[in-house]
Amino acid sequence: MGKVNSVNRSFMSVRQLSTAGLLVGITIFLGISGYGFIPLFAINATILHIPTIIGAMAAGPKVGAMTGFFFGMFSFIQAFRSPAVMMQFASSYNPLYALIICVVPRVAIGWIAWKLFRILPGKLAVRAGGAAVITTFLHTVMFLSLFYLLVGVPFAQHQGVSPVAVAEMLAGIAGANGIPEAIVAGVITAPILSALYRIGNR
Length: 202
Prior knowledge:
Blueprint: H1 2-10, H2 14-33, E1 37-40, E2 43-46, H3 50-59, H4 61-79, H5 85-93, H6 95-119, H7 124-159, H8 163-200
Antiparallel strand pairs: 1-2
Helix pairs in contact: 2-3, 2-4, 3-4, 3-6, 3-7, 3-8, 4-6, 5-6, 5-7, 6-7, 7-8
């Protein structure tokens, strides 16, 4: 019995598993329903990563990493029928590379969000918003960097352009998508986390 209890404590509590399950469900719902995308001028900002960030801040890095893992797996499955040229190419060129591109950044942001929330100064809402902004932009950079490192050159050949042109395109995406998504994440995360902490302290 002692060994079982030790294993349970070293992994995740029932509360953490329940929280992670709820957040995974929300992430999948946002993705399938289309509510996970917010039109911003010429682009769509995604908020699919926000449950991962909130889970990490509210319940710890294990919950964040688990939510991020299932978010990444959902994205990997979606990549096979995605209209986005980049992920469509990655999934057909090398499914393992596509899996790494989809999963690794999403697991990483679970830990990054938790760490930033702990070390940033200021009130809770400020720390939550700031951590969400930084984490979201880092998520974009990690995703695009992994894409370039793993399939950037073959993607350039497939498109008939130079690898430099692909790098420039990805940098443009980081600015055009990453910055608005980071701002949206900060605006959404700060009040939600503040509300969760108020409810938890009652």
